[in-house]
Amino acid sequence: MSETLLAALPSLGLPVLALVISLGALGVPMMPASLMLLVSGTLVAAGDLPLLPTAATALTAALLSDNLGYALGRGARGRVLDRRGAVLDQAHRLLRRRGDVAVFLSRWLFAPLGPPMNLLAGAAEMRWRRFLLWDLAGEIVWVSGYMALGASFAPFVPQIADMAGNLTALLACLAVAWLALMLLRRAPKRRSR
User: Fold this and answer.
1) According to the 3-state scheme, what is the secondary structure of the chain?
2) What percent of the chain has pLDDT over 90?
3) Where are the domains of the chain?
4) Who contacts 120 (Cβ-Cβ below 8 Å, separation ≥6)?
5) Distance between CA atoms of residues 55 and 77, nearest Å
6) How much is the mean pLDDT over the chain?
């Protein structure tokens, strides 16, 4: 499926880019959003796509889907709290203390954690303006960074995509392991109370 979407980008252009980025930001599996940005940067460098409309399309699609995820998390808050109130309370406290950084980094450095972070930020009632500000900052870094990489290293896009995917997966796994370790460290303290 990734190959078909990538092949459609030069001919169909911005609508394909918007679709893939929107679905990827919503957490649909196997959507090559970062790879699509790399290829878009390559196509911009070759003159096949216009720079500003391409960047604006990618940024708008990502922001709209991130905010949809946030709204879905906000709407599902009651159902999540009924099942896992303590976990959500802890997530709420974590988002209060480090929510800005978590939202920002989950846009580009820990991209696989972006869709769950959108839901979690909404469910934990992170203020929408605060979420939007850090979401926008992170998405600007993601869009500009990946498009610049694609433009700079056009001949090496397949190798970069493979390396970036592996690195992103590793960083996401490390982030999840760290979070699990923090939760496990706090569990004995609660039991002793």
Assistant:
1) CHHHHHHHHHHHCHHHHHHHHHHHHCCCCCCCHHHHHHHHHHHHHHCCCCHHHHHHHHHHHHHHHHHHHHHHHHHCHHHHHHHHHHHHHHHHHHHHHHHHHHHHHHHHCCHHHHHHHHHHHHHCCCCHHHHHHHHHHHHHHHHHHHHHHHHHCHHHHHHHHHHHHHHHHHHHHHHHHHHHHHHHHHHHHHHHC
2) 37
3) 2-192
4) 73, 91, 95
5) 33
6) 83
In three state form, how does the secondary structure of 17-37 look? HHHHHHHHHCCCCCCCHHHHH
Q: Which residues contact 129 (CB under 8 A, 6 or more apart)?
A: none
Backbone φ and ψ for 110, nearest 5 degrees, come out as: -115, 55
Instruction: Answer whether residue 82 shows pLDDT above 70.
Output: no
Structure token digits, residue 132: 């939007």
Taking the model in full, what pTM does it have?
0.75
User: What is the pLDDT averaged over residues 76-104?
Assistant: 68
CB 110 within 8 A of CB 168: yes
Contact predicate 2/32, CB 8 Å = yes
| 114-123 helix and 77-108 helix, angle to the nearest 10 degrees | 140
